[in-house]
Amino acid sequence: MGLHITFTKVHEALEKSGIDHALIGGMALATLGIHRATQDVDLLIDGEQRTSAVQCLERAGFKLIFETKEVLHFEGLGRVDLLLANRPLSRQMLQEAKKYPQHKMRCVSPEGIIGLKIQSYTNDRKRELQDKADIKKLIEIYPDLNWKKVQLYAELFGEWETIKALKNRE
User: Fold this and answer.
1) Going by fewer Cβ within 10 Å, which terminus of the chain is more open, N or C?
2) Is the dihedral of CA 20, 26, 29, 30 positive or negative?
3) How far apart are CA 122 and CA 99, in angstroms?
4) DSSP labels, 31-84
5) The pTM is what?
6) How buried is residue 53: exposed, middle or buried, by Cβ count under 10 Å (0-12/13-18/19+)?
């Protein structure tokens, strides 16, 4: 099934069930002006809506194949990964997501995407080169980033010096 169809089905299912959600991952990067290949739909949802999201997506034809307290992975009508906003910062990231003209769905801010990229590569060092390249590109495209917010995300993972170095290599 095509990525656009998966995107539409998951968005409609979550919307119909009243589950707040926002794009993250490759489709969010594309929304923000960075095009690279992706094979799944990555979304951020409120962690308190976990059970409702599982039920909703299973009713829509998706099958839960893996879960932790932080993520839910689905397959069936395409691959869908839900990141659960369980902490105040990630919940704020979800609340601050906004709509972009090319999508019906909201997208996390560039600062939020940088924060999630930092989390991604610190949790899985195999992702480090691509995630840092994505961060660097976001820095180039969005010169007016809220650096206090980026610093807050980076300091959670002890990465502020690294992010400052990427910023200074503009």
Assistant:
1) C
2) negative
3) 28
4) HTT------EEEEEEEGGGHHHHHHHHHHTT-EEEEE-SSEEEEESSSEEEEEE
5) 0.94
6) buried
Measured in Å, how far apart are the chain's first and last C-alpha atoms? 39
Tell me the chain's radius of gyration from C-alpha atoms: 16
* CB-count burial class (<10 Å; 0-12, 13-18, 19+) for 94: buried
CATH of domain 1-102: 3.30.460.40
Angle between the N-to-C axes of helices 147-156 and 160-168, in degrees from 0 to 180, rounded to the nearest 10: 140
Residue ranges covered by each domain of the chain: 1-102, 109-170
Q: Going by DSSP bridges, is the β-strand pair 106-107/63-67 parallel, antiparallel, or unpaired?
A: unpaired
Q: In what order do the strands lie in the sheet with 79-85?
A: 63-67, 71-75, 79-85, 40-46, 21-24, 106-107, 98-99
* Per-residue pLDDT reduced to its tens digit, 52-68: 999 999 999 999 999 99
